[in-house]
Write a structure and sequence with these properties.
heterodimer; A: 136 residues; alpha+beta; globular; B: 4 helices
């Protein structure tokens, strides 16, 4: 049976970015996030999925319903085996981009979500984890 | 998944395009190409992009819209983005997106007023 509290989307085409957005929208809406927070989460997912596609060409998004200290939230992880981040601090600076994006990917995503963690070794892929908690 | 068809309507002297709710990259590229073709064929004074059903505005979307508006401007027309939802405006601002010098309106009615009352070539190309 399909577990309704988590899901997975493979990202290897532009169309998969749309699939990732729709999956996250359905999940966040089910979890009783308000409309503005759903929009924030979906937009963050879109940016992160695009990063995976643009830099690595192939990767996976996982979403999970999480709870911590009696708060519930959604956790999104994006994993790929691409070039990784050579300098995470630099990648978190506004305006920094090595591809033809607008360079507001990661810092923008951080403002939309409550938590953002990046684990990466240059040349060894990246794992980006983003969380947002339902406001009580 | 098939790419939704974009319809470019000519209403009086302007083009009206309704952006689908969750457009993929290919749809946005099609939209840009069809708009520019219609600009050449119909010679309107401007373009209204109705985004009232759009639920996610990410950096790719913003870039395509800004680019399209700049191209329309080079051809001598003006672009008005109409009907952005409040949740989308909040998200776009926090993400740090901007639509360049593209004009905006609350809805298509007001966008039409804006196009009819703004002098030609107000925008920087």
């Amino acid at each position: 049976m399909k577990d309704p509290c988590k899901g997975r989307v493979r990202i290897r085409s532009e169309n998969d970015i749309v699939v990732a957005r729709r999956t996250v929208r359905d999940a966040a809406t089910q979890m009783a996030f308000g409309l503005t927070d759903v929009t924030r989460i979906v937009t963050a997912a879109s940016e992160l999925a695009r990063n995976v596609f643009q830099y690595a060409g192939d990767g996976v998004m996982h979403w999970t319903a999480v709870d911590r200290n009696s708060s519930v939230g959604i956790e999104l992880t994006f994993e790929d085996n691409g070039p990784g981040f050579s300098d995470i601090e630099q990648a978190m600076q506004r305006g920094y981009s090595t591809s033809n994006g607008l360079g507001l990917g990661l810092p923008g995503v951080k403002r939309l979500m409550d938590e953002l963690e990046i684990v990466s070794q240059p040349g060894n892929g990246a794992k980006v984890t983003a969380r947002k908690w339902v406001r009580k | 998944m098939t790419t939704p068809k974009i319809s470019v309507l000519k209403v009086h002297d302007v083009l009206l395009v309704t952006v689908p709710p969750d457009p993929d990259d290919a749809t946005m590229a099609t939209l840009q190409a069809e708009v520019l073709q219609a600009m050449e064929k119909c010679r309107p004074k401007g373009l209204m992009l109705d985004i009232s059903t759009v639920e996610t505005l990410d950096s790719f979307f913003a870039r395509t819209v800004t680019e399209t508006s700049r191209m329309v401007s080079l051809m001598g027309g003006r672009t008005v983005i109409a009907g952005m939802r409040s949740s989308v405006a909040i998200t776009a601002t926090q993400l740090g997106l901007s639509l360049g010098c593209t004009m905006t309106a609350l809805n298509v009615d007001r966008a039409l007023d804006l196009l009819n009352h703004t002098p030609q070539r107000r925008q920087r190309p």
